[in-house]
Amino acid sequence: MKILKDLKGNQNIVTSIATGPSGRVSKITITGCQTLSEGAADHTRSERSVRALALPVLLMFLLSLSSIQAGRRDPETFRVRILYIGDGWGPSPVPKFQVDPAFTCLSIPASQFHVGHGVTTFDIPTMRRFVRLYMPRTFDSLLEGSDLLIFSDANVAFMGNDHLRWFREALLEHGLGIVMVGGLETFGAPRALPWTPLEDLLPVDFVMGPPVQRSFKLRTAIEHPFTESLPWNTMPYFHSTNKVTLKQSATLLMTSDQITQPPLSYADFGEGRSVAHSMDWTPGAGRDVMEWEYYPDYVANIAFLATRNEIPQDAELLHELRVNFWTTTSRLTIVVDTLGFVERFGANTRDVEDRLGEVTEMITRAEELYIEQEYQGSRELIYGIDELIIDLNEEEIDLKDRALFWVYLTEWTVTTGAALLAGSVLWSLMVRRRLYREVGTTRTGTKS
Predict the structure, then answer these.
(1) How many CB atoms within 10 Å of residue 57?
(2) Which end of the chain has less Cβ packing within 10 Å, N or C?
(3) 301-314: string of b/e by CB count within 10 Å (b at 16+)?
(4) Which of 254, 309, 257 is nearest to 277 (CA)?
């Protein structure tokens, strides 16, 4: 519920604001108004005020919101749903997105250059199969399941004509966000087909040719919620960038004194927004930046920027929360794995399971507070969760020790019994020689 005052000092209560798919205000419901002036007005006058002032207030409110769009995210969970296409199976921001409660992230391998690189790799037929299985199969499924498309070293040859058409329409008419990240297969794509079908929807123009191999640091270009969100002086060097030039309609966010290319920019097209990150943010050009303490916050803020969601400004608090969610997830995984191990030895884990259910509910609530931007409440809850997980881990260790005691006792009994039996047999046969008897002579004949 929102309360607004008109020019006559009357209070108007807005009970609902409906938005369309793009986030624009499409309907406002006003249920009543009440004067704020001293002295109570009678009921009849109040009703006349509602009828007389509702329309002017509605017009004022619409004018104030005409240039504002709500950020695109899941209307049910309020998470930003990311479809990460390209090199997300190796070292990449994908794990950072997946552990952040503000996002869901589906990674689809589609990078020909990365075949044979890294610990885990896929061949081209396997990646084509991934694209067939996991890429949205209809335009409606793309809109219903995604808020942001990230192309990181993604090869356009893996995309079908329908995909490219859907990407364009989703951005222009439905507010979908697009981020293109530098690499050998994006922008002008030195080792692949260039992404010219989407070039007119990006804030930069492509310049064909190999990447600029040069180390450089970023600095802010303008005052903007994104540029004010992180301590940029601590950011390490990038080591190369794709060749691009900034379009006149684009906004340059970050620049550098060592290169002439625009490192980070964005532009609005129709209902949506696209972001151009001309450097690779995975190993290679981004190998040092990936070690940056604020790397998870950096990629998260780019996702917020592309989907027109509010960019948090308390860098230290958000960084602390993201680290805490990461460590909490890791500790909870250890607890669950230990629980499964203990159960196999017949330990009674009912109490631990009940408490584990409570911890899971608390984590869900902490994530909800985080998504609602109630960051202080989320931090306090996470601290309490950490203490409970530590207690659960200690209880599981005690259960494990008690369960394994009988295993150790059984093993000791069997081993000791076998040793005693073997020793008894050895004593009887070799020392006491009970199975042997004396003979009178050992010679069978005499000399002639």
Answers:
(1) 22
(2) C
(3) bbbbbbbbbebbee
(4) 254
Residue-level length of the chain? 448
Q: What is the pLDDT of residues 378-432, one digit of tens each?
A: 999 988 888 888 888 887 777 777 777 777 888 889 999 999 988 888 877 777 6
Residue 407 CA to residue 74 CA, distance in Å, equals 50
Q: Return phi, psi of residue 197, to 5°.
A: -60, -20
Location of structure tokens 């222009």: 172
Domain extents in the chain: 2-65, 80-312, 316-404
Helices (H) and strands (E) in the chain, counts: 9, 13
As a whole number of angstroms, the distance between CA 325 and CA 335 comes to 15
Q: Which residues pair with 3 in a beta bridge?
A: 13
Determine the Cα–Cα distance for residues 305 and 307; give it in Å rounded to an integer. 6
Lowest mean pLDDT among 1-10, 132-141, 174-183, 284-293: 1-10
Q: Identify the CA nearest to 218 among candidates 239, 235, 243.
A: 235
Give the tokens for residue 155: 């090869």
Higher-pLDDT residue of 294 and 33 is: 294
Sequence-separated (6 or more) residues with CB below 8 Å from residue 3: 11, 12, 13, 14
- Name the class of domain 80-312: alpha beta
β-strand 25-35 against 103-109: which pairing, if any?
A: unpaired
Q: Distances in Å between the alpha carbon of 7 and those of 12, 33, 64, 167?
A: 11, 13, 14, 45
- d(Cα 192, Cα 112) in Å, to the nearest integer? 8
User: pTM of the entire structure?
Assistant: 0.74
Q: How many CA atoms lie within 13 A of 411 on its CB side?
A: 5
